[in-house]
Predict the 3D structure of the following.
Amino acid sequence: MIDAIEAMWRVRRTDILNSNEYPQELWEMVEKFAEELLSKGRPEFDVPHTHGVVNWAFKLSTALNEQIANGEIDEKELIDFRVIITAAWLHDIGYYGQFKEIADLAQVFDKKAMHVIVGAQMAKEFLEKNASTFLSVAQIDEIVHLVRVHDDLDNISTMLEIILAESDSLGMLDTDGVEPTFKGEEALGFPDIPRFRKRISLFKTKHGIESLPKVINKFRQFVINRDFNGIDPRN
C-alpha cells in the first residue's frame, strides 16, 4: 500500500507535469538520478525532503510569476521552471554517502559546507553529459550555481536563490511531505535555532511568507503529538 506521503507526492508530481512548465523526459531523467543519490544520503529524510522542495519551488515560482504577469510587483524576469525545479531536485545530492544512520543536528551541520561543493560538481557533470537537449549552457551554469550557494545564507540575494532557499526551508518542516527525523526537544526547538531563524529572515516572496507560519505551526504540533503525547512541554 502506498503510504500517505508517497500518495501526496504522486499528486504533486502529476500537478507539476500537467502544468506543462517542465518537460516530462527531463523530469524523469533528473528524478531518477537525484533519487538514486538521495536514497544514500540522510536516511528517511533526503528523498521525501527533496520531493517537498521540488513541490514548494513549483508553488512559489508559479505564484511569483502570476504576480509578475499581473503587474503586482516590480520584478520583471519570470522564474525559469527548468532551472528552479532542476536545482531543487539536485540541491542535496552532495549528502550522498555521508551518513550510515539517522544523524543529529550537529552531524548534519558538520557536513553542510562540503555537501554543496560535492553536489555542485556532481550536478555539473550530470547535466553537461545528459541534459543539453533540454537545458542551455547558461541554464546549466545557473543550476550548478544554485546548488553551490543554496546553503550560503549570507549570500542569498537573487530571486532564484531566494526561491530555492524558501523552498528548502519549507521542505524541511512540511510534515505533509516528510516526517521529522529529529526527536523530542531537538525537533520541537528546530524552528528556533539561530540558523533556521536566519533562513526565516531570507523570505521575500508573498506566498512563502504567508505559508511559513502555517508550516511551522503544523510541524510543531506534529512533534508534540508524536513525541509528547499531545502535550506541549513548553506550557
